[in-house]
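Input (structure):
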């Protein structure tokens, strides 16, 4: 999957599409999902043009990687999710149903979550 500079997250980063921001620093942006699946459903994205985690881990600077990781933890703490628990999820590629070609992590919380994957 190639990076599309007109994807929805790139547009949010450029200010062309509004978002309900909850965290922003030099390297990351976090905002509420517009179609939440749990009471707390927040997306964390790097500001750089990375399609996937493998792309990010290969090309991002140490500062970008640290900021992204720290942002995920900070957002979870700031929204009261760290105590009761939360789930982070990144869909990477076609088999995982990645819909937007920009690395993003979903933070789910605010209720008891089911199994990670149903048994088949």
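Output (sequence):
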């Amino acid at each position: 999957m190639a990076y599309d500079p007109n994807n929805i997250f790139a547009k949010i980063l450029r200010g062309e599409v509004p978002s309900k921001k909850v965290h922003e620093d030099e390297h990351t942006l976090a905002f509420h999902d517009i179609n939440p699946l749990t009471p707390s459903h927040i997306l964390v994205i790097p500001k750089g043009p990375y399609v996937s985690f493998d792309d990010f881990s290969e090309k991002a600077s140490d500062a970008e990687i640290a900021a992204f990781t720290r942002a995920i933890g900070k957002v979870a703490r700031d929204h009261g999710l760290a105590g009761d628990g939360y789930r982070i999820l990144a869909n990477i590629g076609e088999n995982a149903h990645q819909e937007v070609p920009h690395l993003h992590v979903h933070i789910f919380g605010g209720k008891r979550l089911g199994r990670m994957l149903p048994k088949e």
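Notes: The domain at 8-109 is CATH 3.30.428.10 (HIT family, subunit A). The first strand starts at residue 21 and ends at 24.
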